[in-house]
Specification:
single chain; alpha/beta; Rossmann fold; five-stranded parallel sheet; 8 helices; binds adenosine-5'-diphosphate
């Protein structure tokens, strides 16, 4: 019964950590970025629309993203918990998630903020561009994604901090170190992996 959000700038390592935490905590990792990319790859209507925003480093419109997440959270595997990676990113998305959880009588357990300074995130993203060829990893688009993050998403940390939910984790270091930091901080809050 663990409901978590993972927030951090592009390149902070959210995707990697989300998959590891999902395994450790026994909840599905739901990444809006991955869902959009799957739709781009399979050429759906949603994918065509999402691509036009993603390739410019802009957010996909809230109505589209909110509908997608509401549907995904209504699926059976998310009924007992989830880890949302990359959602919410706007105040409107926060409102939608709040309403959704309230209707279900559920609440968030914690918001994990993954921090990393900009030099490090930009160099990680440029490396990923070389390795994976993601179409939104060009230098200009990366710069714009960071600006959009700072303007629209970073302020959400304060919203969740005011609710006492934020756990801030240093995203620098090896992937294993970062995972252990997060798992340790969650355990301190009484959020731990199910006994196998
Ligand atoms: P990153 O965090 O590195 O930018 P993601 O894979 O999480 O990568 O997201 C890639 C792109 O998908 C974003 O730049 C944006 O266009 C779109 N996207 C993902 N999540 C959201 C969201 N919650 N709201 C709007 N757009 C989103």
């Amino acid at each position: 019964m663990t409901r978590l959000l993972l927030i951090g700038p592009p390149g902070a390592g959210k995707g990697t950590q989300a998959l590891r935490l999902s395994e450790r905590l026994g909840v599905p990792a739901i990444s809006t970025g991955d869902i959009f990319r799957e739709n781009v790859n399979s050429g759906t209507e949603l994918g065509v629309l999402a691509k036009s925003f993603m390739d410019r480093g802009e957010y996909v419109p809230d109505e589209v993203t909110n509908d997608l997440v509401r549907d995904r959270l209504a699926a059976a595997d998310a009924g007992t918990g989830f880890l949302l990676d990359g959602y919410p990113r706007t105040t409107e998305q926060v409102r939608t998630l709040d309403r959704f959880l309230e209707r279900q009588g559920h609440a968030l357990d914690a918001v994990v903020q993954l921090t990393a300074d900009q030099d490090e995130t930009v160099s990680r993203l440029l490396k990923r561009a070389r390795d994976q060829g993601r179409s939104d990893d060009t230098e200009d688009v990366i710069r714009h994604r960071l600006e959009v993050y700072a303007a629209q998403t970073a302020p959400l940390i304060d919203v969740y901090a005011a609710r006492g939910l934020v756990i801030s984790i240093d995203g620098l270091g090896s992937m294993d170190d970062v995972t252990e930091r997060i798992v340790g901080a969650l355990a301190e809050r009484g959020i731990s992996q199910p006994v196998a």
